[in-house]
Amino acid sequence: MRASDLAGFTIGAVRAQRGRSLLTVIGIAIGVAAVVLLTAVGEGIHRFVLAEFSQFGTNLIAVNPGKTSTLGMSGAMVSNVRPLSLADARALQQVPDVEAVVPVVQGNAAIESDGRSRRTMVFGSSAKVPEIWGMRPASGRFLPEGAGAARALAVLGSKLADELFGARSPLGARIRIGGEPYRVIGVMQSKGQMLGFDLDDTVFIPVQRALAMFDRESLMEIDLLYDRAADSAAVAERIRALLQRRHGREDFTITTQDQMLQVLGSVLDVLTAVVGALGGISLAVGGIGILTMMTIAVRERRREIGLLRALGADRDQILMLFLLEAVLLALVGGALGLFLGVGGTWLIGFAIPALPTEMAWNFVLIAELTALTIGLAAGVLPALRAAALDPVNALHEE
User: Fold this and answer.
1) Which of 37, 78, 155, 186 could be stapled to 204 by a disulfide with Cβ–Cβ 3.0 to 4.6 Å?
2) d(CA 319, CA 316)
3) Chosen domain end from 227, 250, 273
4) Residue 294 to residues 3, 13, 309: CA-CA distances in angstroms?
5) pLDDT of residue 57
C-alpha cells in the first residue's frame, strides 16, 4: 500500500465517523487549551512578580538587624544584641564596590495640611534614595545630605500630594507628620504599586527624625547599591566581615537582590509547572477518548480489516492505518487546542488587564508533543489488535 493510499484511507476512516472523531478531537483540544491558558496566566504572574521586585534594580543588597535564615523577611522583629545604627550605615559606605547606602526606618503616621488629614506610610531615609531605589522627584528636590540632613523636611509621594493639595503646588508648604511640623521640598514621580503596596501614597523624611518619631534605636534596614560589574556574593561577604568586626558577632541578615529573585523565581517556576500539570489532566482524559474510540473502531471494522488483508495488506500496514488515525485525531485536537488557548489568552488580557498573561511557549510545545504522544500511545493497543486479526475469521464477521 502506497503512502498516499495510507493517508487517504486514514482521512476517510476519520471522516466516516464524524461524531465520534469530533468528540475525540474536542477532548484533546480542551486539554491543550487548558494547558496553554493556565501556563499563560502562571507565566504572566511569574514575570509580573519578578518585575515588581526588580523595579528598584538588581544590584542591591539589604542588611536587616537580627539573624534570620529566611530570605526576604525583615529581621527587625528579631531581638538582637546591637542595633543596626547610622554609624553602621556610614561605615558601609567605605566597603569596596559599594556605590551608595540608604538607611531605612518606616512606620505609619497621620499627615495633616490645611485641615486635611491622612494616615500613610512614612519612610525615614537619606539623600541616596533616588540613586538606589530609582525614584526621582517630579518637582522640587529630594532630602539633602550633609549638615542639613536632619532638618524637618519632607518629600511627598505623588498620590499623597494630590490628596492633600489637589492642583496646588505643595512646594514650600508646611505640613504636620505625627504631630510635628515639616516643610515640603519635593514631590516624587509616580512609581505605582508593588505587590499591593502603593509607593505613591508615602512621605519621605530624614532617617534621624524617623528614629525619634517611632522611638526606635535600630534601623529597620540598610540598602546598598553596588557596582554592576562586581560579584554580589563577594560584596556581601565584605559587608558581613565589616559588620562582624563592628558588632562582635553576626547579629544581622544580608540579602542580595539577585539571590532573592532566584529563590522567588524558583517558587514561581514550580507554580507554573503545577498549573500546567493541572491542564495536563484534561489531556489524559482526551487520551482515554482516543483509546476508547480506536478500540470500538477495531470491533466495528473487523470485516474491513479482513478485506484489506485479503487484498494484500500485511500486518504492519494494518497497524500503521490505525496508528495514523489516532495520531491524526491528536494532531487536529492539538492544533484546535492551541488556537483556543492563544485566543483565550488574548481575550483574558483584553477583558481583565489587571491579570497578567504571557505565553509560555515551552509549555505550549510540551502540550503539543504530549497530545501527539498520547494519540500514538492510545492507538497502539487497538492497532495491535487489528493487525493480529485472522483475515479469514475477520471476513466472516457479521
Assistant:
1) 155
2) 5
3) 250
4) 21, 11, 19
5) 62
